[in-house]
Design goal:
single chain, 551 residues, alpha/beta, eight-stranded mixed β-sheet, two-stranded antiparallel sheet, 23 helices
Length: 551
Amino acid sequence: MPSGARCGRLEVPENRDVPTTRTIKIPYVVVPARDAVKKPPLVFMGGGPGSGTIQLAFFFADLVRDRNVVLLEQRGGDRSDPDLDCPEADKRFADMFTHTEDPYAEADTVADAMQTCLKNFPGDPRGYTARNAALDLRDLRVALGYEHWSLYGLSWSTGVMAQLAALDPAGVDAVVLDSFSPPSVDFAQNGYDGLRTSLGPAAYADLTKAAAQLDAHPQAVPGHNPVTNEPRTYRLTGDDLVTLVHSAAYEVDLLPILPLLLHQLAAGKYGALNTLVAVGIGELVSHNLGQYWLMQCQDEVPYRTAGARHARPVIAWLAADDVVCGRLGLPRSPATTRAPVRFTQPTLVLAGAQDPITPAATADSASAGLPHRQFVEFAGIGHAVVLSSRCGRTVVTAWLDGRSLEQCQGEPPYQVVGPSDLHLTSRLAATATGGYLPMVPAALFVVLVVGWILGWIVHAVVRRRVRLWNVLPALAGLLFLGSFGALLWSEYDVLPARLLLGVPHLAPWTGVLLVATLPWWTKARSWWSAAAGLVWLGGLAWFTVVVVLPS
């Protein structure tokens, strides 16, 4: 926690509509202002539902140094009492990608796990709604003694903050809606529309082509279940690919590589699937899914349109929503909670131009009726503007301070990667994330070079004799490691995700240093030299397959 932060637990009714309901406890953190001049506090709640909140205490404390920052965890979320997490449902959700059936059929086992978790839950699931989360925030303001404060909502919690601004008008002086998810709009349809917008026409066409190919010929990809870390073989269909790409499009540093990645997949080059599986499935189960489904099954899923439910190809987690919620049988929230947002406080609406789940156009139109609204769209940004964009953070602080907004939103943080920007080989990233065994030849090569250099130095110091011929291959190996590492670092420093698809064009040519030493090995006679030569050839073969050969 930041220096001086104060932690506490808010006790609130579990279901405010039932007088005899039990009390639940929700953790919160108050970070005092760091500057002398204090302004009204800023309160934040995470998105999801099911995403954590308190872990962003440092981030928001640095964002607004002249205000107290208050962070309230979501009811039923991580660290709260009760915690609605359902690990078995998380595990089975990740395992959906190991099968090739329709996602609606694959989700049956997830629904079974959620039913079991709900059956064993001792509380009242009807209390876990966005409206109750808004009232939790109101109760926290009163408990902390604040006359009024400013609100920061992110994704799902933008709906919570919109409700709070209407429910507690005297206690709210300003509202920031980042990646606005309007309660009046079909969330699932937003997902499908947002994916098209995020990728653009050409990349989306490549996605649908690659998805059709995977439907005809599913691809087996080795990996691990991120919940249990058990090894898995994922068998990817077109629906799985669409789901993983949609998940990847949330990340601002993956957006620039998605068009090239999809172009490669559409051409039948599936090497990048390994990394896409590791990133995408990990993101999908990074939330508290038990809490997510208890809330969504009441507030949002019952109001989805039939068109969004039966879209093809399918975004698997949206299909799982329908199956799980159909089985849990929870009551839908009142239709009044789905009304267009209406409040009068000054409002800043932030939108990423490539947001795959809360599209900018939807956020703009749904908030247009707010009387004191400023809408800012950021080029090259996906979901969660404040977390993804330095410009976005500048705009937020300027708006909260009443200053004119900096005009930086038209500049994307990264340039889109094209096929001429890299030597295309996805094997390096796949090998680096594929466990220890694929890295053994490279590791042995590094140990050989470093050990050889160190041994030569010790020999030179002790015997005071230096024979460069004896260490020539090691010096070439060291030069190779340094130049290859420097090239990779230069690429990483620009955008780490570029290395998922390839390496700098000069990187394969560093292997010339390894080839140039081969005549030296023909003159070696000792058993040690023979063993070292085998390690050297193994390293050269590894470099040729993983880096030099396109994939």
